[in-house]
Design brief:
Layout: H1 2-21, H2 27-31, H3 35-47, E1 53-55, E2 59-62, E3 65-69, E4 75-77, E5 84-87, E6 93-100, E7 105-113, E8 118-123, E9 126-136, E10 148-153, E11 156-161, E12 164-166, E13 171-176, E14 179-184, E15 187-189, E16 193-198, E17 201-206, E18 209-211, E19 215-220, E20 231-236, E21 239-241, E22 262-267, E23 270-275, E24 278-280, E25 285-290, E26 309-314, E27 317-319, H4 328-337, E28 344-346, E29 360-361, E30 370-372
Parallel strand pairs: 1-4, 2-5, 3-6, 4-7, 5-7, 6-8, 7-9, 8-10, 9-11, 9-12, 10-13, 11-14, 12-15, 13-16, 14-17, 15-18, 16-19, 17-20, 18-21, 19-22, 20-23, 21-24, 22-25, 23-26, 24-27, 25-28, 26-29, 28-30
């Protein structure tokens, strides 16, 4: 009798747990789930102490609501980005999968899948390491997917390495309003923006692969944000190719303006160094640099500088690209010239009273074609207006964390 009662209690508990933890899972997935971990993980995050290491076992662990951590000095460690999976398929509550507001945070060897909103958000934190983490929306590139995959914001001393981001409706790997940043050895695919550095200072983005996104890598500075003045980003030794996914950002999102086929996009950011990257198969344009004002945009932020300056681009390898222009200005150029898009395009907008010196430099012996759009969607200037751009700038210093 006692054995039967014990069995009944387990079944009763499991019956009420299943709707919470197994929504959207098939039988194969259910067999790999550690029910005890899924039930207690948030409790472990709440009760953690500085210096704790929380192990995430192999298997698929399904949650219906957001997880959060606010204790400093905690490490979350899984068994591999394809083995330890935090699944939010069928998430009913919360704006993200895992929200962290804590210094000295490490997360490694884990996946976060199918969140309702952002997958991994790090907010107002210092000394953050994100290593071998995968964020993914497994049903493909859809507008309904969460905005950001890996998403540190208003943070400092950030290392993202060996990670993968797939399917974000805004940016797969995004660092915003932050400083001292390294993004390396990672892969972004089937996002609207693969890797994005926004309103941030002192960033190194290198040895990454950005492919099958709408835009491969974006370096943006936008108005009306608490942190302004994005600058000092190095983008080097990346493979940026075949970024041809149709834009699936929600209506009204700024990245909804990124044309499919864009390799690297620099918007209103200063002191950018782009070198030793490999560009291929980006049908719209390999590299485009433009002001926030280009195309008639208005700004209402008196602290905002809309003009990109001191952009240094050199020693990159270009294999095709520009055969299928999609940006209105590049379409107009192609129709008037019967030529494809040059590898480097600058909108030609200059701060009033500013000359052309050191705005876009391609090296003192530059031979790479550059298209100056003259500040206009139509009626751009010569494809080969290189003289103002045969210049060099001082290299930026490497980021040390």
């Amino acid at each position: 009798m006692k054995k039967k009662l014990r069995s009944f209690k387990f079944s009763y508990r499991l019956f009420f747990l299943l709707p919470l933890t197994l929504s959207g899972c098939n039988e194969a997935e259910i067999s790999s789930i550690d029910l005890n971990f899924a039930e207690t993980f948030q409790e472990q995050l709440i009760n953690a102490k500085p210096g704790d290491i929380i192990d995430i076992p192999a298997g698929t662990h399904v949650f219906s609501r957001s997880l959060s951590l606010s204790v400093p000095g905690v490490t979350l460690r899984g068994k591999g980005m394809n083995s330890s999976i935090l699944s939010f398929k069928g998430q009913a509550q919360g704006a993200e999968g895992l929200l962290v507001s804590a210094n000295d945070f490490i997360i490694e060897d884990v996946a976060i899948e199918d969140t309702k909103g952002d997958a991994l958000k790090i907010n107002q934190s210092k000394n953050v390491t994100i290593r071998r983490v995968r964020t993914e929306w497994t049903n493909g590139a859809k507008t309904e997917n969460g905005a950001y995959g890996i998403y540190p914001v208003q943070s400092e001393n950030i290392l993202i390495e060996g990670s993968v981001a797939i399917g974000a409706s805004d940016a797969g790997i995004y660092v915003g309003q932050s400083r001292n940043i390294i993004v390396r050895d990672s892969r972004a695919e089937y996002n609207v923006a693969g890797i994005e550095i926004e309103n941030s200072t002192h960033a190194d983005v290198y040895r990454n692969v950005a492919t099958k996104n709408t835009g491969g890598i974006l370096v943006f500075d936008l108005p009306n944000l608490p942190v302004q003045g994005g600058q000092a980003t190095r983008v080097f030794n990346n493979d940026i190719y075949s970024n041809d996914t149709e834009n699936f950002a929600p209506e009204g999102n700024i990245v909804g303006n990124v044309p499919p086929g864009t390799g690297l996009l620099i918007l209103a950011n200063d002191n950018i160094e782009v070198f030793e990257n490999r560009f291929a198969g980006n049908g719209n344009v390999n590299i485009m640099i433009y002001s926030f004002l280009f195309g008639g945009r208005k700004i209402d932020d008196s602290n905002y500088d809309p003009y990109p300056e001191q952009i240094y681009i050199y020693n990159n390898n270009f294999d095709g690209g520009g055969e299928k222009p999609r940006h209105p200005a590049l379409l107009a150029w192609a129709e008037s010239s019967a030529l494809g898009t040059p590898n480097v395009v600058w909108d030609g907008m200059v701060r009033p009273g500013r000359d052309l010196d050191n705005i876009v430099c391609l090296g003192k012996n530059a031979t790479e074609s550059l298209l100056n759009l003259g500040g206009k969607i139509e009626g751009s200037t010569s494809q080969f207006a290189l003289e103002p751009h045969r210049c060099s700038l001082d290299p930026l210093k490497p980021i040390e964390l």
